[in-house]
Specification:
Strand 8 and strand 9 form a beta hairpin. The protein contains one helix and nine strands; from the N terminus they run E-E-E-E-E-E-H-E-E-E. The longest helix has 7 residues. The protein is globular, with a radius of gyration of 19 Å. It is mainly beta. The two termini are about 35 Å apart. The protein has a seven-stranded antiparallel beta sheet with strand order 2-1-7-8-9-6-3. Helices cover about 5% and strands about 50% of the residues.
């Protein structure tokens, strides 16, 4: 049996750029999960009256880069999360920013990076778990990939 080359996500960081030159990326604190989902390609129907065997014909159209959901243990005094300078502030202001998902802490010299804005933020309060803040980042444009910096 061949051993898996996969790794667990422990050590992966979500980082937010400051928009300056040179740009500095700050890791968001207390992140418990990062989920990149919803990436898709639209289908364009090119079926015509002479399509072979009456089968529909499709080609790829526009691509949707999806969204990133980040779950964090919320701390209102933390600058990466709060409503003054953090992700909650970006939700309130509509600020766009560069982001990185850095996997070097998980054992890969690799990262995904792109551009987006905070499109949602949900709090969960229970008596048994830390206060959670789930942030949705709408990705805008192509997601790039490369070595971690």
């Amino acid at each position: 049996m061949v051993a898996s080359t996969g790794k667990v996500g422990l050590g992966t960081k979500f980082k937010v750029g400051d928009g300056q030159s040179p740009e500095v990326f700050t890791p968001v604190v207390n992140v418990t999960a990062i989920n990149l989902s919803g990436r898709s390609v639209e289908e364009v129907d090119f079926t015509h009256l002479a399509s072979t065997g009456g089968f529909r014909e499709f080609r790829p159209g526009f691509k949707d880069p999806g969204e990133i959901k980040i779950t964090c243990h919320y701390n209102p005094s933390d600058a990466t999360l709060n409503g003054t300078t953090g992700l909650e502030a970006k939700l309130n202001s509509g600020t766009t920013f560069n982001w990185q998902i850095d996997m070097s802490g998980a054992g890969f010299n690799y990262m995904l990076y792109g551009f987006g804005y905070v499109s949602g933020g949900d709090f969960t309060f229970t008596g048994e778990d830390p206060i959670n803040f789930e942030v949705t980042i709408r990705v805008s444009g192509q997601i790039e990939e490369g070595p971690a910096s």
